[in-house]
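step 3/5: co-fold with pyridoxal-5'-phosphate
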Amino acid sequence: MSRPLRAEINLSALRHNLQQARQSAPNSKILAVIKANGYGHGMQTVAHALASADAFAVASIDEAITLAESGVPQPIVLLEGVFNDEDLLLLQAYPFQPVVHRISQVEQLEQLEQLEQVKNSQPLTVWLKIDTGMHRLGFAPAEATEVLSRLQSCKCVEKIILMTHFACADDSANVMTAKQIKLFEQVFDEIDLPRSLANSAAILSLADTHEDWIRPGIMLYGASPLLDKSANELALQTVMTLRSEIIAVKTIDKDESVGYGAKWKSEQETRVGVVAVGYGDGYPRHAPSGTPVLVNGLRTQLIGCVSMDMITVDLTDCGGDVGDEVVLWGEGLAADEVASAAGTIAYELFCHITARVPFIDT
Ligand SMILES: *Cc1c(COP(=O)(O)O)cnc(C)c1O
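step 4/5: write tokens
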């Protein structure tokens, strides 16, 4: 028998979550965000399952080419834009839509027509990104008008969509989001172009940000984008279930330790189950004793350090034997809860699954 660890991907749950985004913003188009290999779920699987999305967003042109070559018909947006002239020339071969966030990308577009290789350049749709407070990518509000008019003068630029990204939309109490919305409105007050502001958190909590294009990411994968609401409360369904089995069981006396560093000590006689999953599979090494785990559908907890290929769990109260089923996160145990116990976010748990874990579509 092969190692029992696997990541099951529930494609009907994925489609349900897209439908939730659609219902939350019925008048907006959906740019489904599938960067980082579809948040670790398998980019091509996700794209083909989400056939009703209006467009897809990725971080690199290589991801975009893989998608286009696999027959994805929707437009593909490059969230960080083009990195160099080579990327720019690829936009002549593929109808990708770059984000424009720095001045050299504007200059590249201005020079495109002069490039020898490009006689009649393809008309491009570009996403003009403004930095309204996140201070990561985007032009300062004061530069926006000038950059916009330069883009409008580029012969190769056919359509422009205005965008910005929220820093704190997950936290409804944070006043930053309202400031960002106001600044975006001020900058583009008189401009009649399509707009895009909302990530998952804003889609589910700020209807006035929906505008022309919403950009759902994490909600598609069934984790909650909001600090004060669970995925369940938001009617999102679990997409990834990381499942394994118990591969050894032993009973240790009181005052014995388990695992590397002998960090965890038994306060009573303890039945220890060894589970085939470790940080070599992407289970977080920093998950502490107490992190929840399901054994045969019953909740128990991690004890001792996470090893490369194994973890140890407490079977004293829940029972369980060799060959019994363990869920690390997914159906019956929200990834958000495991992430929070491990001091991270579900986004990172999903992205960190390593190549040796088999993916199974269900
Ligand atoms: C990743 C990303 C999103 C999606 O964010 P979620 O929080 O996963 O919904 C939206 N817009 C941009 C620009 C992004 O980089």
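step 5/5: annotate
The mean pLDDT is 96.
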